[in-house]
Design goal:
With about 675 residues, chain A is an all-alpha fold. Helices cover about 70% and strands about 5% of the residues of chain A. In chain A, strands 1-2 form a two-stranded antiparallel ribbon. Chain A is globular. Classes of the chains: A mainly alpha (about 675), B mainly alpha (about 100). Chains A and B meet through helix 26 of A and helix 1 of B.
Chain lengths: ~675, ~100
């Protein structure tokens, strides 16, 4: 049954990849969407079964066969769904289905074969992502991990005739490779330590150990795994690929680079919560990296002009929140934010896609504005999602972000909490800057436009005055459906995690709880129950604090929105003045802190030089070619001497034959 | 009865004549004839040894040699004709182009 979940999209991939060229768009797109819906249905049934079990025993496992058996190493191809994986498969298949449906409209301008290629990649991605989530051991997760990386590369470079898209795809792939290398090393360290790679096996083995003090093998292994996660989930120092990944089609950005794939790192830490919580050194690093990434990406997002890039930096920033939560040990809060983020960020990306679609490829917010009237569905859904991500009560983002900040504060990381709160302010500001610049004010055509965005722009600007574009089309039905469902999700998704302090039950937290503790042996249960009760009591004591912090974060969110309203609606000149006052700061942010340039100078160029001068000009040309050419010239030289024997004269040959025979016979006669 | 050594001396003389012909003559046809002389010198040796050993093996081998010699003569003459058509010459020193 579990195997069906990734199998449906995989079959969709096979069909579209092999026969897609001959299928009309409605069939290939419909088939792909149907495969996702089927997978979603199976996921729902599975989660229903899971919910029917007792909370302690909530896990379904299916072992298909032994995949690798070699000495101590025994890896089964087995899928396991527990409460954590259940949340993930619902997000992946549910939002995945919506994005498939959205894509049927968004990609409609492509020719049939390209359309089928797109859907085959998208289905393959979903399949690998589900393997990643359902895999019951590290290697199987790694298969999915690598598979989604491949699909990410293929989809970023989907428009492969564009050089920038190809470059972005390669960048994503190579940067991820760095992280994957560390992930493999982490796996090896875990195998060396525990002799197993099964998640549950590792968890129960590690639960019996004391929490590590100082930096030992557990810290090393988890740190390596976390480096893998920074690659996949775009954290410092490996985040640079994600903003460039926006070269891909927008639904891809929504599905892969916002809702699902980039959260794989967060999921991986949640999956190994027991392991990570035994390595406090690593957790501190995770929390600090998460907070710093959140802040840094937030500041960059504030000045970017490409609508998708703002969302991309926002994604990096929100992922930073999730890692912050993981790092302070609030695994449930991190997964909660992952889950709500999937809704509103997918909605935002799809909304931006609808805007880009309506404007025929325009992505620069400086050329937008005033789209509120023309694109009402897009506007309202985008606005709801923006409010959600800004963290306004009672939308989903409020609950999840607040839980993270609260847990951070309670764990005593006041500095990290301050960074988180500051980032919340930035989040509200840059999101509403985007909303106001895109949908409010007047339609603008002021910024220089990249030639390939739409080549007839000069003509457009001269023939239409300001406020033109009344013929713009709002999202077609398939896109509108996805937008509306996701907007509802953005509003309501948080209601399953309402904290106790305001009369909720935090059902999600309770549901996820078993996934973050080691598989229990009978008898231990009483102890942990007592602990849970103690926790409950402590929580009651925290209620007042939590309410205060909620008020603070709500105030921050509203302040951010108000600030954005003031600057970008009321006094547009302020923004320009600030830019003029601090040109250095603005340029620093606009150029993303020059991190790409820094990496280029410190890593890319040295490797290039070493490869060109050392490996190519010296090793290949001198050593390898030298060996080959040397062998040839030895043969050539010796042949030059030996060929003089071949005079061509028959008598000389006969003479040498005769002399030879005489000599041999002479030898036998005279010896 | 004539002793074996006489046969062997005659055949050695014949073989030497043939060899000298192969090396010294400048005509391909004569060289072929010299080779025939060498072969027949060997044949004489075989027959003589066979006779003295009292069995027919030597004579049988001689028949084989004659067969091969006939074939060799046919192929050799055909080659000579082909070469002559090519170079208008029968001198073996004219045919030295098969070299480096």
């Amino acid at each position: 049954m579990l195997a069906l979940i990734p199998l449906f999209p995989f079959v969709g991939f096979l069909v579209n990849a092999t026969m897609g060229k001959r299928l009309p768009k409605s069939v290939s797109g419909g088939l792909a969407s149907l495969a996702m819906l089927a997978s979603f249905a199976v996921s729902l049934i599975t989660v229903w079964q899971l919910a029917g079990m007792s909370p302690e025993a909530r896990a379904i496992e299916q072992t298909l066969y032994t995949w690798i058996a070699s000495g101590d190493l025994n890896i089964a191809l087995s899928f396991r769904v527990d409460p954590l994986a259940a949340v993930m498969i619902l997000v992946i298949t549910g939002i995945g289905s919506l994005i498939h449906i959205y894509s049927t409209a968004y990609m409609h301008d492509e020719v049939d074969s390209e359309f089928a290629r797109y859907f085959s990649y998208l289905n393959l991605f979903a399949s690998f992502m589900l393997v990643l989530v359902l895999g019951a051991n590290f290697p199987l997760m790694f298969v999915g991990w690598e598979g989604v990386g491949l699909c990410s590369y293929l989809l970023i470079g989907f428009w492969f005739k564009k050089k920038s898209a190809n470059d972005a795809g390669k960048k994503a792939f190579i940067v991820n490779r760095v992280g994957d290398y560390a992930f493999i090393l982490g796996m090896l360290a875990i195998f060396a330590k525990f002799g197993t790679l099964d998640f549950q096996g590792v968890a129960s083995a590690v639960a019996a150990m004391p929490v590590e003090t100082g930096f030992g093998i557990l810290s090393l292994a988890t740190l390596l795994l976390f480096i893998g996660a920074t690659g996949k989930s775009a954290q410092i120092p490996l985040y640079t690929w994600l903003p460039d990944a926006m070269e891909g089609p927008t639904p891809v950005s929504a599905l892969i680079h916002a809702a699902t794939m980039v959260t794989a790192g967060v999921y991986m830490i949640g999956r190994n919560a027991v392991l990570f919580s035994h390595a406090p050194e690593t957790l501190t690093i995770v929390a600090v990296i998460g907070a710093l990434t959140a802040l840094m990406a937030g500041t960059i997002g504030l000045v970017q002009n490409d609508i998708k890039r703002v969302l991309a930096y926002s994604t990096v920033s929100q992922l930073g929140y999730m890692f912050l939560a993981m790092g302070v040990g609030a695994f449930g809060a991190g997964i909660f934010h992952l889950y709500t983020h999937a809704f509103f960020k997918a909605c935002l990306f799809l909304g931006s896609g609808a805007v880009i679609h309506a404007l025929h490829g325009e992505q620069d917010v400086r050329n937008m504005g005033g789209l509120r009237k023309e694109l009402p569905i897009t506007y309202w859904t985008f606005l709801l999602a923006a409010i959600a991500i800004a963290g306004v009560f009672p939308l989903s983002g409020f609950f999840s972000k607040d839980e993270i900040l609260f847990e951070t504060f309670v764990e005593g990381h006041t500095l990290l909490w301050t960074i988180g709160a500051l980032t919340a302010l930035l989040t509200a500001t840059y999101m509403f800057r985007l909303v106001f610049l895109t949908f409010h004010g007047q339609r603008r055509h002021e910024a220089p436009v990249a030639a390939d965005a739409h080549d007839s722009h000069g003509h457009d600007a001269s023939s239409h005055g300001p406020g033109s574009g009344s013929h713009l089309h709002d999202a077609p039905p398939a896109m509108a459906l996805a937008l509306i469902v996701l907007a509802i999700g953005s509003v309501a998704a948080g209601w399953i995690g309402i904290p106790h302090a305001i009369g909720g039950h935090n059902e999600l937290g309770a549901w996820l709880e078993p996934s973050f503790s080691a598989p229990r042996v009978a008898g231990e249960a009483t102890v942990s129950e007592a602990a849970a009760e103690a926790g409950e009591a402590a929580e009651a004591g925290h209620a007042a604090l939590e309410l205060t912090l909620m008020g603070v974060s709500l105030a921050i969110a509203i302040a951010g929105i108000a600030f954005a309203y003031f600057v970008w609606i009321k006094r547009r000149r302020i923004a320009d003045n600030v830019v003029r006052e601090f040109p250095g700061l603005h340029r620093l942010l606009l150029n993303k802190y020059y991190v790409d340039e820094l990496y280029d100078a410190t890593i890319v160029q040295p490797i290039k030089v070493a490869s060109t001068e050392g490996l190519w000009r010296w090793f290949d040309v001198r050593v390898i070619d030298g060996a080959v050419n040397g062998a040839a010239s030895i043969v050539d030289g010796s042949a030059g001497v030996l060929r003089r024997l071949q005079s061509g004269s028959v008598r000389a040959y006969a003479g040498s034959l005769f002399v030879g025979v005489v000599m041999i016979l002479g030898y036998y006669l005279w010896r | 009865m004539i002793p074996l050594s006489h046969y062997l001396i005659v055949s050695a003389v014949l073989f030497a004549i043939g060899t000298a012909g192969v090396f010294l003559r400048r005509n391909l046809i004569t060289i072929l004839l010299s080779i025939e002389i060498m072969l027949n010198a060997v044949n004489l040796t075989f027959v003589a040894f066979g006779r003295y050993a009292g069995d027919v093996d030597g004579q049988i081998i001689t028949f084989f040699v004659m067969t091969v010699a006939a074939a060799e003569a046919a192929v050799g003459l055909a080659l000579v004709i082909a070469l002559f058509r090519h170079r208008e010459s029968l001198n073996p020193d004219a045919f030295t182009s098969l070299k480096w």
